[in-house]
């Protein structure tokens, strides 16, 4: 497991404690400063029928198409259903547990081969235990040039 994803997983379990899911307002940027550039905050729409990118960290933006903040994945050709991202997000919503996946990179940065993606579910106090938000951490796997 990639180092930042491992830190994120430890933090999510700390926030969760004895509850089935942590609350979204428990996720404080001050406590995850090292992870912010590799983090996305995603709103779950209609119990996982769609997802909206609320915040995308600068490290993710650097290797992604621009202009995805505020967009639903149904509006992004490479991520709408069916896709690895849609399936990953949907699985987290249904299972209510973190999921991890290596996804083939389809962007334009020739240094990136694939990305490791971790997705953590959150709820809100008035959601009856349903997943309302996802926190994702993305770390790139780079090609190593031959000497």
UniProtKB/TrEMBL annotation:
InterPro entries tied to this protein: DUF1457
Name used for this protein in its record: PAS domain-containing protein
Organism: Kiloniella laminariae
């Amino acid at each position: 497991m990639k180092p930042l994803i491992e830190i994120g997983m430890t933090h999510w379990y700390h926030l969760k404690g004895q509850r089935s899911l942590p609350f979204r307002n428990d996720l404080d940027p001050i406590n995850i400063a090292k992870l912010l550039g590799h983090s996305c905050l995603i709103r779950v729409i209609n119990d996982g029928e769609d997802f909206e990118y609320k915040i995308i960290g600068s490290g993710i933006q650097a290797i992604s198409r621009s202009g995805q903040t505020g967009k639903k994945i149904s509006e992004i050709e490479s991520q709408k259903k069916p896709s690895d991202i849609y399936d990953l997000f949907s699985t987290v919503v249904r299972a209510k547990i973190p999921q991890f996946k290596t996804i083939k990179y389809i962007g334009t940065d020739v240094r990136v081969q694939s990305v490791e993606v971790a997705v953590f579910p959150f709820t809100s106090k008035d959601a009856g235990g349903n997943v309302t938000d996802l926190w994702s951490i993305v770390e790139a796997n780079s090609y190593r040039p031959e000497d």
